[in-house]
Amino acid sequence: MQRIAIYPGSFDPVTNGHIDIAERGLKIFDKIIVAILKNPVKNFLFTVDERLEMLELSFQKYPNVEVETFEGLLVNYAARRKSHAILRGMRAVSDFEYEFQLALMNRRLNREVQTVFLMTGFRWIFTSSSIIKEAAQFGGDIADIVPPIVNQKLKEKFGFIS
Ligand code: PNS
Q1: pTM: predicted TM-score of the whole model, two decimal places
Q2: Which of 40, 43, 57, 83 has the most Cβ atoms closer than 10 angstroms to its Cβ?
Q3: Ligand 1 binding residues, C-beta < 6 A
């Protein structure tokens, strides 16, 4: 049986920290499905299609990584994809409370699905999509913490290249 993990998130945009977690996950799972939540409520910088494109390009060289979008409850999506594992990255202690709540709610909703936390690489401990967007907005150099396509798209978005 193939061991499949769902790696869910907003990925607005994908960072090297996300790639690091997926790479670590591939050492445990046969396949990882990177799943972007289609969330109509939250405000995102990039559209779902833009985020999908950036993820697809960033994971191009990983044959065991699939990128998709999902709607509704994560545990229902995991069941549809025949996965028993949700993969989440853990950075500093500040991530813990939210991740703990999410994992416990997901377990309550479906006891067959386990959440697996992986520690991000030390290099990416302080990397987050929000802080990257803030730096990029004011022309900060973030080239070494995001995939090249994301660096380009952020520059286009904030008018630093056309
Ligand atoms: O990258 P994020 O924004 O921290 O990811 C959050 C995400 C997408 C994992 C979470 O919001 C989610 O799974 N949403 C789908 C709805 C759901 O099942 N919520 C958890 C139980 S209420």
Answers
A1: 0.97
A2: 83
A3: 8-10, 37, 73-74, 102, 105-106
Q: Is residue 114 part of a domain?
A: yes
Minimum CA distance residue for ligand 1 atom 1: 9
Which atom of ligand 1 has the smallest separation from the CA of 12? 1
Is residue 10 a part of any domain in this protein? Answer: yes
Among residues 68, 62, 89, which one has the least CA distance to residue 147?
A: 62
Strands of the sheet containing 31-37, edge to edge, are: 65-70, 31-37, 4-9, 85-90, 114-119
Question: How many residues does the structure list for the chain?
Answer: 162
What is the domain-level CATH number for residue 88? Answer: 3.40.50.620
Please pick, among 42, 82, 108, 111, the residue that the annotation labels catalytic.
42
